[in-house]
Amino acid sequence: MKRLSYETLREQGYDGFLLQDAPERFLQFGEGNFLRAFADYFVDVMNEKCGFASKVVIVQPTGRNMRPHDSLNKQEGLYTLLSRGKAGGRKVEEARVISSVSRCLNPVSEYDSYMACALNPALRFIISNTTEAGIRYDPACLFTDRPASSFPGKLTQFLYARYREFGQERGKGLVLLPCELIEDNGKALKESILQYVVQWELEEGFVKWLEEENLFCSTLVDRIVTGYPKGELSALQERFGYEDDLMDTGEVFAFWAIEAPESLKEELPFEKAGLPVFITDDCAPYKQRKVRILNGAHTSMVLGAYLAGQDIVRGCMENEAIRGFMNRAIYEEIIPTMTLPDRELKEFADAVADRFDNPFIDHELLAISLNSTSKWRERVLPSLKDYVEKCGRLPRCLTASLAFYLAFYRAVRPVADGFSGMGCGREYPVCDDRHVLEFFYSHRDDKAVVLTRAALANTGFWGEDLTRIEGLMEAVVADLDRIEAEGAYGLIKECAK
Questions:
Q1: Contact predicate 24/123, CB 8 Å
Q2: Is 345 helix (H, G, I), strand (E, B) or coil?
Q3: Fewest 10 Å CB contacts: which of 44, 122, 374, 398?
Q4: DSSP bridge pairs for 431
Q5: pLDDT tens, 238-265?
């Protein structure tokens, strides 16, 4: 079987969209599954739908396995993306050969080729996904390094080379679109670069050029990418008729919010291509929507569902009571606390139900349970407090989710490789910060009222004393007693009514 290439596709009579040659208008830091199923896919669709005619040159972070670098170049930048899941309640599976990538560079072994990209007059956009730890200032980096070890250091060297080449021309600055999952990622990236400007004593003209000619956009990304389909590879390659070392899989849903001026819409025709990318002056409402609805639904549901005998998210969606619990939490308790238009919020919530019911993803509840203390604080508590303020009463399902949290952690005990809990007749791992686990172990023999008072009053958990929320402690104690008497499923059914 031949390797995926343009020639292989021609021999097969492939009739899908392909773009073999176009200017390299994007530089991308990161060759991983996510960006290839997200940003590179979007560029590919714009190329097809809008005649965007742009290629992406990928820069592989240092110290990484060379396999993606070698495979991308051997396959001429081509790879297959399978988008699979549910949309509008229907099963969807779409295969697409992505041809938006031109090549992949290693900035250590190919430093000169990497830096030569800064001199490309067609270059306009920089995308990155270097993990949450990638955007950080490391003072050990030197301007003379080939290249600097940190991502912001590499980028500073790159931008300075472009400034030296084009600093006197208008319109040759770049639009930076970081996709790292940190707050205000565009602002954080710019701040790190300015730290290197000071450390390396770069001239004031460079700072002025950075400010006036470049656009650092904060962004919010959302797509579950399941990556290389190792277990299905033989069947898929037989189906497509070629070898593909970089096949990628992801859910159908995708969303990208970019905080930028309206004028960027003219340069990036996402809307014209029908893509779920929104250029806005404020990403905050979209982040709130994702955190409170998608993440909040997960966090409020999974611990109770696990104690009720479920193991994966899709199984929860197939259970009428658990799905009813989730729907009530989202539509009646979370959405009323938010600022975006109801129509947008409900459309997003409908998509969340399809995402949770994805037949191609076995999303384990225990994987979602990791670090539930901080997750409940960030994802659920704001909705609970806003609901109380707006409605003057406690939200039934979100309050119950706090009882499920306490029940899940209540019987925690140390074991050889960490901590475990006991519930629904089975032992399970509990993973959280050490101080959280030690707290629950020290309260393992407490009655429900004592445990609840101590946990809710722990400002180290929540940043405030939750016993001050009127009626919350009493409601959680009652729910804990009910879980102990009837099991978690009994409380779920009662909340879902």
A1: yes
A2: helix
A3: 122
A4: none
A5: 999 999 999 999 999 999 999 999 999 9
pLDDT at 67: 65
Three-state DSSP class for residue 147: coil
Helices (H), ranges, 25-64: 33-37, 39-50
263: CB partners within 8 A, 6+ apart: none
Q: What is the pLDDT of residue 55?
A: 98
CB–CB of 304/372 below 8 Å? Answer: no
C-alpha distances in angstroms, 491 versus 238, 241, 309, 403, 424? 48, 52, 13, 10, 14
Query: What is the side-by-side order of every strand in the sheet holding 418-423?
Result: 413-415, 418-423, 426-429
Number of helices (H) and strands (E), helices first, in the chain? 24, 15
Q: Which amino acid is at 52?
A: F
Q: What are the structure tokens assigned to 151, written together?
A: 């991502």
3-state secondary structure of 355: helix
Domains in the chain (CATH in brackets) are 6-280 (3.40.50.720), 284-496 (1.10.1040.10)
CA 298/CA 291 separation, integer angstroms: 10
> How far, rounded to the nearest angstrom, does the alpha carbon of residue 138 sit from its chain's CA centroid?
25
Q: Are 441 and 415 in contact (CB under 8 A)?
A: no
pTM above 0.85, yes or no: yes
Phi, psi of 3 (to 5 degrees): -75, 150
DSSP symbol at 230: G
For 42-80, write each residue's pLDDT tens digit: 999 999 999 999 999 999 976 555 567 889 999 999 999
* Structure-block tokens of residue 285: 């409402």
